[in-house]
């Protein structure tokens, strides 16, 4: 059937939250909104699968991290963070509206990825390196070196090496996870005031349009907060992650 993505998302520290019922109702409403807005990239409608966990099945896997960003942005306003696992692969069953009736590699990988992101020992196991990162990409490993060697056998003796000159098989999976982790570290440093300017910039599209709506904000202040927050770096990383996942899918289909 091709390569699909499943994103499993869970609320961090949900048992300690007050007004969980209110949060769940808000989450259901937001999921319904995204189901309408993003129906072209979803294979099936998003739904809550457990009390504080929900699942997204995508026919456009490259949008996996974008989906996570949307939920992060929505829940940050409520001071809530999430764990997320991205799983890539095939689907071994028919496609149903209820994702719990489906199975396959992408579902298994997504469950494994969510478990990695929630594992207290993940830093010792080296799947993740920063406590600021709660997102993990999980899929069959594809080596950059092997892909390059298919097209350039003359370089068959080339190997990636670390600073210790030990052979290192660099996979596209490792690159995706590294850029995601770097991005999550940058996003964690964004202040509420910087976030306010980011949201205005994304809503109105330019410094001048923001000033027309909010005369008390100067162009210098907008520029300063966007740059200090690393907004443009984060956006560029989002673009790279999306394209790397698209490349991964093409490699899988061509293998």
CATH topology of the domain at 4-140: Alpha-Beta Plaits
Largest sheet: 5 strands, mixed
Low-confidence stretches: 152-158
Q: What percentage of the residues does DSSP assign to strands (E)?
A: 5-15%
* Count of individual beta strands: 5
Structural class: alpha+beta
Tertiary shape: globular
CATH class category name of the domain at 4-140? Alpha Beta
- Average pLDDT number: 87
Strand order of the largest sheet: 2-3-1-4-5
* Multimer state: single chain
- Give the proportion of residues in helices: 40-55%
How is this structure best described in words?
- This protein is of the alpha+beta class.
- The chain has a domain at 4-140: Alpha-Beta Plaits, CATH 3.30.70.
- Helices cover 50% and strands 12% of the residues.
- The chain contains 10 helices and 5 strands; from the N terminus they run βαββαβααβαααααα.
- The protein has a 5-stranded mixed sheet with strand order 2-3-1-4-5.
- A hairpin with a 2-residue loop joins β2 (47-50) and β3 (53-58).
- α6 runs antiparallel to α10 and α7 (192-204) packs across α9.
- The protein is globular and about 55 Å long.
- The two termini are 15 Å apart.
- 26% of the residues are buried.
């Amino acid at each position: 059937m091709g390569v699909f993505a499943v994103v499993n998302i869970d609320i961090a520290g949900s048992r300690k939250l007050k007004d969980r019922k209110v949060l769940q109702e808000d989450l259901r409403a937001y999921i319904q909104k995204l189901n309408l807005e993003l129906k072209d990239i979803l294979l099936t409608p998003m739904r809550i699968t457990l009390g504080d966990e929900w699942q997204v099945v995508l026919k456009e896997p490259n949008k996996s991290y974008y989906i996570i960003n949307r939920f992060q942005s929505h829940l940050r306003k409520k001071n809530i963070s999430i764990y997320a696992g991205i799983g890539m692969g095939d689907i071994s069953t028919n496609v149903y509206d209820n994702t719990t009736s489906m199975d396959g590699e992408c579902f298994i990988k997504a469950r494994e990825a969510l478990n990695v992101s929630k594992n207290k020992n993940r830093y010792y196991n080296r799947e993740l390196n920063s406590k600021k990162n709660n997102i993990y990409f999980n899929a069959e490993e594809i080596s950059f070196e092997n892909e390059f060697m298919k097209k350039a056998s003359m370089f068959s003796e080339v190997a990636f090496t670390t600073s210790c000159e030990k052979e290192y098989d660099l996979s596209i999976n490792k690159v995706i996870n590294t850029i995601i982790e770097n991005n999550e570290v940058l996003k964690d440093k964004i202040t509420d005031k910087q976030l306010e300017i980011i949201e205005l910039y994304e809503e109105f599209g330019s410094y001048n349009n923001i000033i027309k709506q909010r005369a008390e904000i100067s162009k210098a202040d907008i520029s300063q907060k966007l740059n200090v927050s690393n907004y443009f770096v984060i956006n560029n990383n989002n673009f790279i992650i999306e394209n790397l996942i698209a490349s991964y899918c093409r490699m899988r289909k061509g293998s």
